[in-house]
Amino acid sequence: MDPEVAEFLKRILTTIGVILFWMGMNSTFGIMLGYGYVEAKIELGNIIFYIWLVLSLPTLIWYLRKLWKEQKDFDVYDQ
Length: 79
Fold this sequence. Notes:
Blueprint: H1 3-32, H2 44-69
Helix pairs in contact: 1-2
């Protein structure tokens, strides 16, 4: 396999893995452990969860933009 194609597939797999990990963490703590639901009053766990959610989403977007910012030049027609 060409090194350019391998690097491209690595970026795709890294992107999918990081997004699935982020979604899994947020759904585990938010839905399964109940920190995403505010019932009678706001508790410390709810505040920490929403602060994490608000701070981690821009960080995730920044990381993915940094990962995909460098354009790879595939030399398809230079054979």
